[in-house]
Amino acid sequence: MTPISKRIGVLGAGQLGRMLALAGYPLGQKFGFYGISQDEPSALLGHFHLHSDEADNLKALVDFADVITFESENTDLQVVREIAKTTPVYPGERSLEVAQHRGKEKSLFKEKGIPCANFAVVNSLEELQQAVNVIGVPSILKTTTEGYDGKGQFVIKTDDQVEQAWEAIGGRELILEAFVDFHRELSLVAVRNAAGEQRFYPLVQNVHHKGILRYTIAPAQQVSEMVQKQAESYISTLLEELDHVGVLTLELFETEYGLFANEMAPRVHNSGHWTIEGAQTSQFENHVRAICGLPLGSTEARQPIAAMLNIVATTGPIDKVLQMPNAHLHLYDKEERAGRKLGHITLLSDSQEALFADIKSLNAFLPL
Amino acid sequence: MTPISKRIGVLGAGQLGRMLALAGYPLGQKFGFYGISQDEPSALLGHFHLHSDEADNLKALVDFADVITFESENTDLQVVREIAKTTPVYPGERSLEVAQHRGKEKSLFKEKGIPCANFAVVNSLEELQQAVNVIGVPSILKTTTEGYDGKGQFVIKTDDQVEQAWEAIGGRELILEAFVDFHRELSLVAVRNAAGEQRFYPLVQNVHHKGILRYTIAPAQQVSEMVQKQAESYISTLLEELDHVGVLTLELFETEYGLFANEMAPRVHNSGHWTIEGAQTSQFENHVRAICGLPLGSTEARQPIAAMLNIVATTGPIDKVLQMPNAHLHLYDKEERAGRKLGHITLLSDSQEALFADIKSLNAFLPL
C-alpha cells in the first residue's frame, strides 16, 4: 500500500469496469466489483462480489471500498443513496439522478442555457398528441429512463404515427424531442476532481449505426478553437452545477445553428476509449485520479489523429488488427451476440489520409 | 472467449506478472498466478494459487492454463520440466537452464561468437586462485546461479583479496569474470514467437547504483545503426539457438572494442518497462502475443526519447509525478523496503534536453 492507494468498489463488472481497473492498478489502487456473473469482463480483475437478492454481497463490496463508483447511469439511485451514507460515491447521486432521466437532463440543459432540442415529458397518449402538435414532426419519442444504444426509441415521422408510437413504447413516462437536423455527432469527455480541477479532452466525432456507436474520430476534424471552447463551457457548467467528481461525457449535435446538447453520461464513455493509447492520460486513469482525490492528468492527444472502431456482434478478422503496427486491440472477453460490443480497436495516425486508409482496410468491422 | 483467448498461467506473482496481465487482458487473455502471498503485486489480477509444499496448488494452475510462463530465471527447472510434459511452457526449459547458470550462459556466448568477458567457473579456493592468475584483477566473482540486483557478487580488486572473496561468497560453484572497462551499459529487449518471427526494441542505456537499475534512457543516445544491428544479430543468434519463445533481454557493455554481452534474461525486463507507453507495442504485450502464438506487434518508439526511473525503497514524491503532463506512474503495490523496486515512472519527451530537465526535476527518485 502506497500513500495514494485506495480500494475502489465498482457497481457493475462490464468492460468499463475492466478498463478502469487496467488503468487504476498502475496507480497502486485495488479493485472490487459487484456484478451479475463470474463471466463478466471485470470479474477476474479484482475481488468479485456476486449481485444477488441478499444484501450481504453488496455490503461486502462497500466494506472493502474506500470509494465507490459505478459503470452505468442505470445504477439504482436508492442503492447509491444508501451507500453514500457511509462511503463516498463518485460521481454523486445528483449526477446520477439527472443522467438517468432524460426530462431532468434536458431541463437542466435549458436552465443552464445549454442549447438543446425542444422537448416535452408526456405521460399519456393525449399528452403525447398535444406535444406533437407543439413540437411537430419529425420528432423522437424516448423513454425518460433507461434505454441505451437506441433501445426504447421511436421516430415519429408523420402526424398519424402518434398512436403507433404510444403503443410501441408508451404506457410509461416518455419524452418527445424535436428532431435536430445535424451535420454530425460530436462528444466531449471531461473530468473533474473533488478539488474542482477540470480537464477536457478534444471534441471527437462519432458515427452510429442502428443506434450503436461504430467509430470515433479523435479529434473531430474541422472543429474551430471557438467550438471546442463552447463545448467546454457547456460541460464545465454541468460539472460545477452537479458538483460532479469523475468523468462526465456530453454528446452533442453539430448543426447550422451551432452545438446542441443531446445527452450526458456520468461516466467514462465509449467515445473516449481512444484515449487509452491516444491521450497522455486515458479517460479511465483520469476517472480513477478524480475519484481518489489525485491531481488530474494531461488530456492532450499524443498523435495528430486517431480512431476508435467498435467490434460489434462478432469478433471479426482480429488477426489483421494484430498485424497493423499502429493498431491496438481491446477485447472484453464477451460471448458473441447481435448488437453486443465485444471490444474495440484504436488506430493512431499522423494524417487523416493515412488514418482513413487504415479504417478502410478494417472495413470488415464496420456496418455495410 | 474469443478465438485468440488463452488461459495464461504465470509462475510467480510479482510486478512482472502484474504488468503481463495488464497487457494481456486487452487481448482477451485470462491469467492465473502461482505466488507466495496474497499480498503480491499480481494477486488481484487473476486466479491466485498459493505456493505451498503441497503440489495441489501448482496442479490447479497447470490445469487452468493453456500455456505457462514464468517471471524469473530463478524458477525451478525441475518444476518447469515436469509441467512441460503436459502443458507448453514458454520460454522453454533450455532458455531457463542457460539463463540461470552464468557459466552455461557465458559458454553459449563464446560458442556463438558473441563477445563477452573472459571467465572461469571455479569450485574451490585453489581453482579460484588459478583463475585469478589467468584472468587477472580487477575481476568479479559471482555465484553461477541465483543472485540478482548485485547480490552474491564480490569485486576482486587486488591479488591478495582472493581468500577474502572465497570466504564471502564461496563454498559453492562460482564464476570469475574479467572486469570489463565499459563506457556504459546497454540492453536489448527482443521477442520471438513460435513461428520464428522476431522483433527488436531499440537499444537502451541503463544506469545502475549499488547493483540496482535506477534509470533507463530509450533509445540509448549516439548509437549507430551498425551497433544496433550488431546487438540484434547477437540476440537473434540466441533466440534461434535456444528456440526461444517470448521476450529475451540481453545486457551489454559498450566498450572501446565494441559491444560485450554481460548476461541475458529469458523474460520481460526492467529496462523494457518504458515500452508500456513508449513503444507501439509494450514488451509485456509482445511476450503475451509470442507465447499465445499471435503475430508480434511493432517495437517502434512512439516519441523521440523516453526515460524510465525506478522507484526504489521509498515511494517518494509521487504527487509531483502525477502533476507532470508527460509522466506515467506505475506502482506495484509493495511495502517500502531498502533496495526494493516499488514502481517506476515513464517520461516521454520530444528532445534529450527536455527529457533531462524532467529527470532532474524528479531527482528525489534518483540515488545521491
Automatic annotation (TrEMBL), chains A, B:
Keyword match ATP-binding: yes
Reactions mediated catalytically: 5-amino-1-(5-phospho-beta-D-ribosyl)imidazole + hydrogencarbonate + ATP = 5-carboxyamino-1-(5-phospho-D-ribosyl)imidazole + ADP + phosphate + 2 H(+)
Keywords assigned by UniProt, alphabetized: ATP-binding, Ligase, Nucleotide-binding, Purine biosynthesis
Pathway the protein takes part in: Purine metabolism; IMP biosynthesis via de novo pathway; 5-amino-1-(5-phospho-D-ribosyl)imidazole-4-carboxylate from 5-amino-1-(5-phospho-D-ribosyl)imidazole (N5-CAIR route): step 1/2
HAMAP family in the record: PurK
Enzyme Commission no: 6.3.4.18
Family: Belongs to the PurK/PurT family.
GO cellular component annotations of the record: cytosol
Pfam families attached to this UniProt entry: ATP-grasp, PurK_C, RS_preATP-grasp-like
Biological processes, Gene Ontology terms: 'de novo' IMP biosynthetic process
GO molecular function: 5-(carboxyamino)imidazole ribonucleotide synthase activity; ATP binding; metal ion binding; phosphoribosylaminoimidazole carboxylase activity
Domain ATP-grasp: 106-292
Binding site for ATP: 102, 142, 147-153, 177-180, 185, 208, 262-263
Primary enzyme class: ligase
Domain of life: Bacteria
Subunit structure: Homodimer.
Primary role: Catalyzes the ATP-dependent conversion of 5-aminoimidazole ribonucleotide (AIR) and HCO(3)- to N5-carboxyaminoimidazole ribonucleotide (N5-CAIR).
Organism: Thiosulfatimonas sediminis
Name of this chain's protein: N5-carboxyaminoimidazole ribonucleotide synthase
InterPro entries, A to Z: ATP-grasp, ATP-grasp_carboxylate-amine, ATP_grasp_subdomain_1, PreATP-grasp_dom_sf, PurK, PurK_C, PurT/PurK_preATP-grasp, Rudment_hybrid_motif
PROSITE patterns associated with the record: ATP_GRASP
